[in-house]
Specification:
mainly beta, four-stranded antiparallel beta sheet, three-stranded antiparallel beta sheet, elongated
């Protein structure tokens, strides 16, 4: 008796849940399906052998062993799976896709910690004057999340070859909002860039 196919669905960075999905042809006559370990079990990283048993209406039993190999998901793959149900970098889950139409692609929303399915989940950055310190400039941005590095860079002219890392500054966090105050600003223009990275 033919057995249903086995499909592995990765559900966490360290394991995968196995479910058994009959194909149209394999499902004919199958009335019950068992496995050891049970369907839906989470397997550790590595290789595990799973035995699947099927029974048809005439009480005929067939079984087969399947090797399940689990490779840990990267943090980006897990993020895609959590939001889109797939770890693949394709379709609406692709790095360059913008499924919520908010102008930020998935790669940015992953790095920034945003919800790629909600257009209201946005990253905001602005410049503000500093009361009592007309030479200083405040760079205000949010949301800020733990586990990410936020580095402010600057240029005095957009034609400059490189962005310089801001070193003379103060930082103040209020909830998920961060204010970085440039304490070394001088007369004339200064352009700012914020770099967000995941370790």
């Amino acid at each position: 008796m033919p057995l249903p196919d086995v499909t592995v669905h990765a559900t966490s960075p360290g394991g995968a849940a196995v479910s058994f999905v009959p194909t149209a042809s394999d499902a004919v006559g199958v009335t019950s399906l068992t496995s050891a370990p049970a369907s839906g079990s989470v397997f550790p990283t590595g290789t595990t052998t799973v035995t699947v048993t099927a029974r048809d209406a005439e009480n005929n039993v067939g079984s087969a062993a399947f090797t399940v190999t689990v490779t840990p998901l990267t943090s980006a793959e897990y993020w895609r799976y959590a939001y889109f149900g797939t770890a693949a970098n394709m379709g609406i889950a692709a790095d360059t896709a913008d499924p919520d139409g908010d102008g930020f692609d998935n790669l940015f929303e992953f790095v920034a910690g945003l919800d790629p399915t909600n257009p209201a989940s946005r990253f905001s950055i602005r410049l503000a004057a500093v009361p009592g310190a007309p030479m200083d400039t405040a760079i205000v941005f949010n949301p800020v999340f733990a586990g990410r590095a936020y580095v402010v860079k600057y240029k005095t002219n957009l034609t400059d070859a490189t962005w310089m890392t801001l070193t003379n500054f103060s930082t103040n966090d209020t909830g998920s909002k961060r204010t970085v105050t440039d304490l070394s600003a001088s007369p004339g223009s200064r352009f700012y860039q914020l770099k967000i990275t995941l370790p």
